[in-house]
Write a structure and sequence with these properties.
The protein is an alpha+beta fold and 813 residues long. It contains 25 helices and 21 strands. The protein starts with a helix and ends with a helix.
C-alpha cells in the first residue's frame, strides 16, 4: 500500500509542478475559500465553545432565580448566602459582579475594571495562575476587616507592574484603600462570563471597605450566580431545591410562587442571554463562509475539468499501459489532495491574522473585553475537514468523466477534441454561473449595508455630535457622599464654563446612546391615578438633566422654553413625540400631568425636537426631561461638554479641570460623542465589513475562475482562432469575440444573483436604515462590477488568442 501511495504522491507532485500557473490558480482559489472558513470558524469557536477554556466547564453552570422584579435572574447577597447555607444539591455556589474602581499604582491614578467575586467563587471557577496563588474562602471573608486580597490579570501585571515576581512588593490602592496582591490569572483564561476581561478580581466581602457602592448592598440584585452541583444530582433536583430556598427568602411568597422560576444552565451551553443571538449570528456567518468555500470548490472544479480535457491523451496513454479506471481516479484525487493541502496551509496563515481583524471590530464599549481566538484542536480539525472537502469535490467531476468515459479512446484524440464534449462545457458554465450568483449576492449585501452604515452615521440625531465630549463621574469610585459629589460637579461645571475651549457644559443622569435600562414612568394627563385605573396610563422615558443640557447638546426648543436656574422641580420639558402623543390636537406648553410614580403634578414649560437616545432608526417614543435633583447625585452623573475647537479639546479641558479641582479623584475615561456613536453603528459596521470581505473574496474567486476557464478555452481553441485569422478576421474582432463570450457566459449568473439578492434584501429590510432594498443604483453597480470582472479576467487570454500565428497553428495539426 505504501508503494502505490508513494508512487501516486510523487506522480501528483510532478504533474502539478509541470503546470505552475494552473497550480497557483487552484491553490489561490482554495486558500481564499478555506481561509474564509477557518477565520469564521475560529471566531465561532471562541464565541460558542469558549467554555472549553474554563476549567471543569462541564461540571459548573449559571444559576438564574427570576422573579417579577428581577427578570434577568440576578441575585442579591442575601439570596447567595441562603443558597450557600441551605442548598443540599449544590456543592458550592459563587457569584460575580462588575465594578469600575479607582486604581492608584506607582503614583499614577487611573480607572480599572474589577470582577467582584464571592467567598466560594474560586471553588466553582478555578482559573489557571501565572504567579502566586488563588484566593481561599478564608482570604475572602477576612477582606471585610483586613486588607483586601486581590488577583491581577496577566495583562494588568505585565503592563502596569512590569511582571514584578515578588507580588508582596506591588503597592496598589483601590478607591483609596490598600490591597494585597495574592496571584496573577493567566492571560489564556477566559472566564464563563464571556468577553469581559477584568483587570483584577476583588472579594465581595471587601465591597463596603472599598466603597464599591450600593450595587453591592446586601439586598441589591446585581450578582450573577454560578454553581457546582453535587455529583449525580440532576438539573430537576437543583431547580426544586433552589426554588424552595428562594421562596422562603421571598418577601411575598404567594406572589413569588406564581412568578418565581429557576434556571440552571451549564457553562458549556453558553450564556442564555447571549446564546440565541450568538448562535444565530454564528450560523449565518458560517453559512456565508460555506458559500464562499463552495464557490472556491466550483472554481477549482472548473479549472480541474479544463485541465482534464487538456490531459486526456496522457490519461489515454496511461490506460493503454494497463492503468485501470480506479487507478486513474486515484491519481486525480491525489493531485486534488496535493493542491488542497497547499491551499489549506496558505489558508492557515490567512486565518492566523483573524485576531487582528476581530480586534478592530470589537464592541466599542468602555469596558475591557477580549475574544480569545486560538487555532486550537477544534479549529485544526475543522480545517482538516474543510481541506478534505476541498480536495474531493474539485476532483470529483474529472474523476466522473474517467468513470463514465473510455480512456483508451482518448489516445486517438486530436487537439480539437481537447475542448471536451458539449455536456462537459455545460458543466463548466454551470460552475461559473454558480460563482457569479454567489458573488453578486455578496456584492449587493455589502453595498446595501455600506449604504445603511453611511445613512446611519450621517443621520440627523437631533443634537450636536461634532464638538461634544462626555465623561461619567461615579461617587462610589471616588469615596464621596452625594453632597460631596454634587459640590464637586457644580465646581467642575463653573470651571469648565470659564475655559476658552468650552462653549457650554451641563450635567445629566445619562447621555445619548447610554448602556443600560431606560427610566420609564407612567403619565396621567387626565388626573386619574395610574395605580388604580383599569386602563393603563401611557408611559414615557424620563431623563434627569441640568439647566444647560439642551444648550450643551445644541437642542433648540420648538415651543415654549427650556430650563433656567429659577425653575422648580415640577417643571418639565417634553419632546415632540410626547407632545403629540400625550396631548393630541392641543398645545403641550402649560399642560399639567401626574407622575405615575409619586402622583406629583408636573407642568410642561417647553417642547424640544425629537432626538435619538438609543438606536438609530428606533420607533419614536415619548421622552420627558426633568430637573436633576440632589438625590440623583447618589448615582453616576454624566458631564456633557460642547467645545469651541472640537470634541477632543473639550475632553482635554474636562480632564484638566477635574484634576485641578481634586487630584485624588480617579480620572474618568472621556468619550467624544462621535466615538460614543460607534456603539449603535457597530452591528452595521461589522455586517458591512463581513459581507464586504465575502464579496471581495467571491469576486477574486470569480476573477480567477473566469480567467482560468477562458485561458484554457483559448489554448484549446488555438486551431479555430488560427483558421479565423487565416480567412481574414482581425485581432480586434477576435478579442471582441472572446470578451463577448465571457460577458454572455456570466450574464445568467449575474441576473439570477441580482434577483436572489433582491429577495434576501426584502426579508432583511428591518436591519437596514435609510436604504431602499430595491434601490436600482445598487443593483446596477453590482452588475457593472461583475461585468468589469469578466472583462478583466478575459482580457489577457483574449490578447493571447489575438496574437496567434495562424500558419504555425495550421502546420501543427
Amino acid at each position: 500500500m505504501m508503494d502505490w501511495l508513494r508512487h501516486d504522491v510523487a506522480h501528483a507532485v510532478r504533474s502539478v509542478a509541470r503546470r505552475p500557473g494552473y497550480t497557483a490558480l487552484v491553490v489561490f482559489a482554495l486558500a481564499l475559500g478555506l481561509g474564509a472558513n477557518m477565520a469564521a470558524f475560529s471566531v465561532v469557536n471562541a464565541l460558542l465553545f469558549r467554555s472549553s477554556r474554563t476549567p471543569d466547564a462541564t461540571r459548573i453552570g449559571w444559576l438564574f432565580v427570576r422573579t417579577r422584579s428581577t427578570p434577568d435572574g440576578r441575585a442579591s447577597t442575601r439570596t447567595l448566602d441562603a443558597l450557600s447555607a441551605h442548598a443540599t444539591t449544590l456543592a458550592s455556589v459563587g457569584a460575580e459582579g462588575r465594578a469600575p474602581v479607582s486604581c492608584e499604582l506607582g503614583g499614577a491614578l487611573s480607572t480599572a475594571w474589577a470582577l467582584v467575586v464571592s467567598a466560594d467563587y474560586f471553588d466553582v471557577v478555578r482559573p489557571p495562575l501565572a504567579a502566586g496563588r488563588t484566593l481561599s474562602p478564608v482570604d475572602v471573608r477576612a477582606a471585610a476587616t483586613d486588607v483586601a486580597p486581590v488577583l491581577l490579570s496577566e495583562r494588568f501585571w505585565t503592563d502596569r507592574t512590569r511582571r514584578t515576581h515578588d507580588l508582596s512588593t506591588i503597592s496598589i490602592r483601590l478607591n483609596g484603600q490598600p490591597v494585597a496582591v495574592m496571584g496573577v490569572v493567566r492571560d489564556d483564561f477566559q472566564g464563563p462570563g464571556g468577553l469581559f476581561a477584568p483587570d483584577l478580581w476583588i472579594p465581595l466581602d471587601a465591597a463596603p471597605r472599598l466603597r464599591l457602592g450600593s450595587a453591592f448592598d446586601r439586598d441589591a440584585p446585581t450578582l450573577t450566580l454560578l454553581a457546582r452541583p453535587r455529583s449525580g444530582i440532576s438539573i430537576t433536583a437543583v431547580d426544586a431545591d433552589v426554588r424552595a430556598i428562594a421562596l422562603a427568602e421571598s418577601e411575598s411568597a404567594k406572589e413569588a410562587a406564581n412568578r418565581l422560576t429557576v434556571d440552571y444552565v451549564p457553562v458549556r451551553d453558553g450564556h442564555p442571554d447571549l446564546r440565541g443571538f450568538v448562535t444565530t449570528t454564528s450560523m449565518l456567518a458560517m453559512l456565508a463562509a460555506a458559500i464562499v468555500l463552495a464557490v472556491a470548490c466550483f472554481n477549482a472544479a472548473s479549472l480541474a475539468l479544463a485541465r482534464a480535457f487538456e490531459r486526456r491523451r496522457d490519461l489515454g496513454v496511461r490506460a493503454a499501459m494497463g492503468a485501470g479506471r480506479w487507478r486513474l481516479i486515484r491519481a486525480l484525487l491525489t493531485e486534488g489532495a496535493i493542491t488542497a493541502t497547499a491551499g489549506g496551509a496558505l489558508a492557515l496563515v490567512l486565518a492566523s491574522w483573524t485576531n487582528r481583524v476581530v480586534d478592530s471590530l470589537s464592541l466599542p464599549a468602555p469596558i475591557p473585553q477580549r475574544l480569545l481566538i486560538t487555532l486550537d484542536g477544534r479549529v485544526m480539525a475543522f480545517g482538516v475537514l474543510a481541506t478534505t472537502i476541498a480536495a474531493v469535490l474539485p476532483a470529483f467531476v474529472p474523476a466522473w468523466q474517467v468513470l463514465r468515459g473510455n480512456p483508451l479512446m482518448w489516445i486517438h484524440a486530436g487537439a480539437a477534441s481537447a475542448v471536451g464534449s458539449r455536456r462537459d462545457r455545460r458543466v463548466q458554465r454551470r460552475f461559473i454561473v454558480a460563482q457569479m450568483i454567489a458573488s453578486t449576492v455578496f456584492l449587493v449585501a455589502a453595498f446595501l449595508l455600506a449604504q445603511s452604515f453611511h445613512a446611519s452615521s450621517t443621520a440627523d440625531l437631533g443634537f450636536n455630535v461634532a464638538n461634544t465630549a462626555i465623561a461619567e463621574l461615579d461617587p462610589a469610585r471616588d469615596q464621596m457622599s452625594s453632597a460631596q459629589r454634587h459640590e464637586l460637579a457644580d465646581a467642575l461645571v463653573e470651571r469648565l464654563r470659564a475655559s476658552p475651549d468650552v462653549l457650554s457644559v451641563a450635567l445629566a443622569d445619562r447621555a445619548p446612546f447610554f448602556v443600560g435600562s431606560a427610566v420609564e414612568r407612567r403619565v396621567s394627563t387626565d388626573g386619574s391615578d395610574c395605580r388604580a385605573t383599569p386602563t393603563p396610563c401611557p408611559s414615557a422615558i424620563v431623563h434627569m438633566v441640568g439647566p444647560s443640557y439642551f444648550d450643551a447638546l445644541a437642542i433648540p426648543p420648538r415651543a415654549g422654553r427650556v430650563f433656567d436656574a429659577h425653575d422648580t422641580d415640577d417643571a418639565v420639558v417634553v419632546d415632540e413625540t410626547a407632545a403629540t402623543t400625550l396631548w393630541p390636537g392641543r398645545t403641550a406648553v402649560g399642560a399639567r400631568f401626574l407622575d405615575g410614580r409619586d402622583r406629583r403634578s408636573r407642568i410642561v414649560i417647553g417642547v424640544v425636537a425629537d432626538n435619538v437616545h438609543r438606536v438609530i432608526g428606533e420607533a419614536k417614543r415619548p421622552h420627558i426631561y426633568t430637573r436633576l435633583t440632589d438625590a440623583d447625585f447618589a448615582h453616576p452623573v454624566t458631564v456633557i461638554v460642547r467645545g469651541r475647537g472640537g470634541a477632543d479639546r473639550a475632553a482635554a479641558s474636562l480632564l484638566i479641570s477635574l484634576r485641578t479641582l481634586d487630584p485624588a479623584v480617579a480620572p474618568p475615561t472621556p468619550q467624544t460623542m462621535a466615538s460614543r456613536l460607534a456603539l449603535p453603528l457597530w452591528p452595521t459596521r461589522v455586517g458591512t465589513s463581513f459581507f464586504g470581505a465575502c464579496a471581495v473574496v467571491a469576486l477574486l474567486l470569480a476573477l480567477v475562475g473566469l480567467f482560468g476557464m477562458t485561458y484554457y478555452a483559448v489554448n484549446q481553441r488555438r486551431r479555430e482562432f488560427g483558421v479565423r485569422l487565416a480567412i481574414g478576421a482581425t485581432q480586434a474582432q477576435l478579442r471582441r469575440l472572446i470578451l463577448g463570450e465571457s460577458v454572455r457566459l456570466i450574464a445568467p449568473g449575474v441576473l439570477v444573483g441580482l434577483i436572489v439578492a433582491a429577495g434576501l434584501a426584502a426579508l432583511a429590510r428591518r436591519l437596514l436604515y435609510g436604504v431602499s432594498t430595491l434601490d436600482w443604483r445598487v443593483y446596477v453597480l453590482a452588475g457593472l462590477v461583475q461585468f468589469a470582472v469578466a472583462v478583466v479576467a478575459s482580457w489577457m487570454p483574449a490578447r493571447r488568442a489575438s496574437a496567434t500565428d495562424p500558419w504555425s497553428v495550421l502546420r501543427t495539426d
